[in-house]
Amino acid sequence: MSNKLKLRIITYLCPGHPVELYETLMSYLEEQIGCEALLIYESRSVKELRDREDPFTANLADLAFMTCEGFVSLEASRNEFMELLPVTPVFLHPKNPDGLKGYYADIIMHADRRKNVKTFLDLRGCSWAYSKQDSLSGSTIVLKKLKELGENASFFGNTLKSGSHLASVQMVLSKQADAACVDANTLAYNKKYLQDKGKDIEVLESLGPLPPYPIVANKRLPEPAKQRITEALLKLSGNKYWMESLKEFGVQGFTSNHKDSYLLQRDIEEGAKGLSLGIIYY
Q: Does one domain contain both 206 and 107?
């Protein structure tokens, strides 16, 4: 029987991010730290699964690539079985030339609207697609922007819940919706798969940077293993072979991270407080 570390990895970032990205990172960790890994794909958010025991408490996962909102939600519940690893991926974006941590949300529209829409305020009355109510990049950051402008969700003519960032992109491309806000990394990677490589998608504005994607470990994982995972990811940018494999996903390396990064998440949520893109039942 193998004495290798068995590493159970879960990602909550698909299908917005390609599962192949996390398969590549899994393979890299297997090589670098000599483990045997298993990848679990969970398309539902932590909040959507709030009625179930989380994978850390249930001891079903050792390492998780999560959304910011999922991590903040678990931390707020004082989950005693999870901890943030001090490392996070850095993604390419036109507004991030210095390769800093954090990511962006792109406000997109169909290119046919460029004659009449020059600024966000020109979207008044439009049909707006959003991925999920609790999505930081698809919903919350937009609500914060509306509030800063003295507006609310009635600014949009109607709102359509798409279910995912990629679905929001497709709705704008097919003109089912006039505009949307999506994870910029979802848009960047999937353009090559869209009709005419997404040439009819126009980025009106980019919001951010948003807090970096958290990588979370099960506290039961031995300390040396957590340290080896962190060190392996931090040195990835110096590995030509693996960086070539990650280039197509827009990853340009990894950098240090700290839970103070998620104070921004709370600020954004506070800035959007009282607003909703969906129906609120009282």
A: yes
Smallest Cα–Cα separation from 9: which of 87, 63, 66? 63
Name residue 211's amino acid: P
Structure tokens at 223: 């300390």
Contacts 24+ apart (CB under 8 A), 198-201: 198/169, 198/173, 199/111, 200/110, 200/111, 200/112, 200/173, 201/108, 201/109, 201/110, 201/111, 201/169, 201/172, 201/173
Pairing outcome for strands 215-218 and 82-84 = antiparallel
Dihedral sign from CA coordinates of 131, 150, 68, 183: positive
| Domain containing residue 144 | 103-210
Phi, psi of 257 (to 5 degrees): -145, 160
DSSP of 77-93:
TT-TTEEE-SEEEEE--
Pick from 36, 102, 85: nearest CA to 219: 85
Q: Please tell me the distance from the alpha carbon of residue 66 to that of residue 265, in angstroms, as a whole number.
A: 14
19 domain residue, yes or no = yes
Distance CA(15)–CA(41), nearest Å, equals 9
State the DSSP code for 53. -
Query: What is the model's pTM?
Result: 0.92
84 and 64 in one domain? Answer: yes
Quick: pLDDT tens for 50-109.
788 999 999 999 999 999 999 999 999 999 999 999 999 999 999 999 999 999 999 999
pLDDT of 2 reads: 62
Under 8 Å between Cβ of 159 and 278 = yes
CA distance 229 to 239: 15
Q: Which residues contact 60 (CB under 8 A, 6 or more apart)?
A: 8, 10, 40
Rounded CA-CA distance 130/134 in Å is: 10
Same domain, 29 and 111: no
